[in-house]
Amino acid sequence: MLFEKKEYKERLNKVKISMQKKGIDLLVSQDPANMNYLTGYDAWSFYYAQCVLVHINEDEPICFIRAQDGGGAYIKTYLKNENIIEYDEKYIHTWPLHPYQYLVEIIKKRKWDNLNIGLEMDSHYFTAYCYETIKKGLPNAKFKDAERLVNWVRVVKSNKEIKLMQSAARIVESGMKTAFKSINPGVRQCDAVADIQKALFNGTKEFGGDYPSIATLLPTGKGTSASHLTHTDEKFVSGKATIIEIAGAYKRYHCPMARTVLLGEKDQKKIDTMKATNEALDAGISATKPGNTIDDVAQKFWGVLDKYKIKKDSRTGYSIGIGYPPDWGEQTFNILKGDKTILQPNVTFHMIAVMQFGDWGVEASEAVRVTEKGSELFCNLSRELHIKK
After folding, report:
1. Could you give all domains of the chain from N- to C-terminal order, each with its CATH number?
2. Is 337 helix (H, G, I), strand (E, B) or coil?
3. pTM of the model
């Protein structure tokens, strides 16, 4: 097990307290990051229906998993064997059969079919068919959205989780340094990404890296004005900027980073914009301390942008921790004006400034930890525009 059983029990108790406040007797959690958080389960099996059941009065969760992946649950989780329930292969892609039909039988057998059941309605892998199947199969139950209940419990990290994220930080630093070396005029984007990915998986001498939850994001040229573009087999061109957004991942804990490279001669407009962007990031980070709100951070960030008359409508950050495809964010708070989430020690977030201006853009970010008295950065790598002549 990655964590001691005591820590898993503490997580479960926090989730139960939140369930009680929301009037939920039984939680069905299908988000793979939440399943990992609650039980330790970790496998690339989330493309099939699977979940963790948390009953308000039970000592352990139940891991509901495909039979073929049962071995992974026995290896990775702290659960007793009887709390790992496998479903038969006949439910795999054989419509109208569906794994949640068997889940319904399990819930009925335990006489939980008339409870208040919380569902992760906006979880990436909780499909409409999952919802319709459980709703139809349990007509006496009352269903409600769990409102990312487990995700919000995950927001405050344990010290062991922080250490894992610090390891991920060393990995992403290596990956970004490799990106700086590999991105050159005439080099194919795919070749640079191959180098970056190798660095992210190789990690350090002390530990290797996991697969990140998001592909290497590599918009270049006019693409820097758009978000979330990945590489092609085209070559980098002198005079053009390239944005690199990657994450180091260790034991599923992520530490993201974004930087911008400019090939060729200096471009004063991009240099000045990056300076203003970094000043805004520094201002937001300076407001990061226990008791302050996300709004306090956002006001400081946008205050600097207003000074330079720079307009930015999109959020400038989100909470981070455990991640599975397609996202390394925790889907909780957003760094935007008006978000009243109160910061606590060991809250962690990715503060990312995506600056877009028609046909060009720059980008920089920091992964941040709230400490007892303020904040600290996970990484130590210059955010200045990286110019390569």
Report:
1. 5-154 (3.40.350.10), 159-388 (3.90.230.10)
2. coil
3. 0.97
